[in-house]
What does this fold into?
Amino acid sequence: MLSQMNLPSTIILGGGASRELVPQLQRLSAQRVLVVSDSFLQKTGVVGRILSELETAGIKASVYAGVQPDPTVANVMEGWDLLRTCQAEVVIALGGGSPIDAAKVIAVLAANPSPVRQYEGYHRIPRPGLPLVAIPTTAGTGSEMTRVAVITDTERDVKMMLLDAHLVPRIALVDYELTLTMPASLTAHVGVDTLTHGIEAYISRRANSLTDPLALSCVELVSRNLLTAFAEPNHCAAREAMMTAASLGGMAFANSSVCLVHGMSRPLGALYHVPHGLSNAVLLPTVTRFSLPGAPERYAELARRMRLAGADDSIETAGDALNLFLLELNRKLGIGRLRDVVSVDWPTFSSRMDAMAEAALASGSPQNNPRVPTADEIKQLYREAW
Ligand SMILES: NC(=O)c1ccc[n+]([C@@H]2O[C@H](COP(=O)([O-])OP(=O)(O)OC[C@H]3O[C@@H](n4cnc5c(N)ncnc54)[C@H](O)[C@@H]3O)[C@@H](O)[C@H]2O)c1
Ligand SMILES: [Fe+2]
It folds into this structure.
């Protein structure tokens, strides 16, 4: 199998990296830009700081701050309308995965006709769009590094996954200082999303020699820093490590793949609006226990890198240690069970399980899992996670 990497051509990582925006835009000779963000970041002044830097440099900026968590096709179309009227030459994404994903698709529509739905799936976007600068404020989805965008089609209640090299940001400015304001619960949810990216990229059937070192570094950083970032929000070293882990996780999974956790997570987001990281978190221990027999050595290697097992421990011991760690991690982060995060009772949830299993399989992610589940096994896993 050939390995392929698609990554931003410029990545600047570290405290203060977001202040490199103006020099980077000047290198692109950009005079008009569209900033895509959300209402919270606009209210708290994060957008304003960027706008004043642009204004000082004489760069004309328009703002679309209407992106909602789990961005919709409507969000993309609103941003695209504004892009057309303001004639921006570069799109700037400022926010968590939601604004970054919306901005990716807005930028692509500059050269590809709507509707967005036709680009769902793999490698379906014919032409490159406008250059995108991604500035993440969560640590996180790693979307700043990826060729993936997740956009909800509210007409079908489906989270569409678009994967295409034309979705990779041109520039990623990865500044952990922007994450210091994340409350504990958001830190926990996006942190487990990062961990899931590292784990799934490594155990995927598409894992390769380019993504393996990135995935292992990702899980190592998360295992050593997530609980500190959760308990001490101003702990700069832990925040910086988590931001690095998020980017490494994004680089790894987008060029390997995600697997069953993300596949089963998808309908939980679309139907019950469970935040992406949280829906991964409530599934991760159960799905790991199921998947482990499909790649015991790989899971053992993850456990070793996370220092849950030593070089002399058996593969079984290392796997058990990983299972235990994931359960304990959720407990320490205050993450409950599946029944605690969906707003319905068991009879309602179970009546939709056929459609959920189908949506999970249709995402394509479960097929990359080391142990590929049937629809019945997926339903059984939801039951166990309940
Ligand atoms: N494209 C990819 O590669 C990829 C990968 C994983 C997930 N995703 C998608 O990303 C989305 C989730 O993104 P997310 O988890 O980063 O959350 P998000 O962008 O949806 O933001 C969640 C909330 O956190 C707030 N927030 C953002 N930064 C903050 C900060 N620094 N301090 C305080 N609050 C802050 C936002 O305003 C929002 O209210 C989902 O739609 C998911 O499907 C995409
Ligand atoms: Fe994810």
Notes: The first strand starts at residue 10 and ends at 13. Residues 141, 193, 196-197, 262, 276 surround fe (ii) ion (ligand 2) (CB under 6 Å).
